[in-house]
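WARN retry 2 of 3 for item q-0093 after timeout on previous attempt; input resubmitted unchanged.
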Amino acid sequence: MTNSFIENIQSKKKDFTDAELKIANLLEQEPFVFSSSTATEIANKFNVSQSSISRFCQKLGYHGFSDFRMSLILSLSTSVPSNNTTNEWCATLCNQINQLSQSLDDEHQNKIAQMIINARVTYTSGYGASEIAANLLAFRSMLLSLNVFEIPTSREVETLHLINNQDLIILFSASNPSHADLISMLDDMPKEKRPKLILVTESLRHPFIKKVDEVVMLPKINNDNPYLSHQSVQLLYVLLLLPKMAYLFAQKNKD
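OK item q-0093 returned
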């Protein structure tokens, strides 16, 4: 973590309750667990309440855990590893970028980018570690003035009332059937309401692979480097997709 991120926590410790102080200490010990987990998963893993996690984040100046976690991810990604791990970290990252770039079909990626740009509204969704990639795509797309929004994991039903067949949903899911309820509800929708679906996954055996309109198959990359967690392939995919979206969107506005 960067010094400024750590200093912010240290400066607030005097205001923490015992439960919030426990969370601060756990964060210092397990920062990558916090960056790749939901508030519910952290509460269950460390036996703390979700309300304590929420208050902890708010005392640090964030709206909630999701806002805090994005800041944590940026802090971890910009912090400088020790001299003993710098070369290993860089080598692993370069290896992931090369494998991912080689595995992606450029024409198909242009098609995905075009689908996002042409949609009336694009929604992203992911559970657990996959939520980070969904959040990143939505956030960076909005900076491009695109109508891309993340569906909160507890608000799928409400969102479906707003959707029609001109919209697009992008599901980030490594291999688990976390979106089972959402898929079931979409299956029950009439054709004039059902949006297009894209699945970004790492598994050819994903249970939803035949339920979607397009599949982005990411490579499975063995990674034992603690500085690059499992969801880094999804994040790198988003970062490779965004320049294509920006270029095609600029061309569309130019025409």
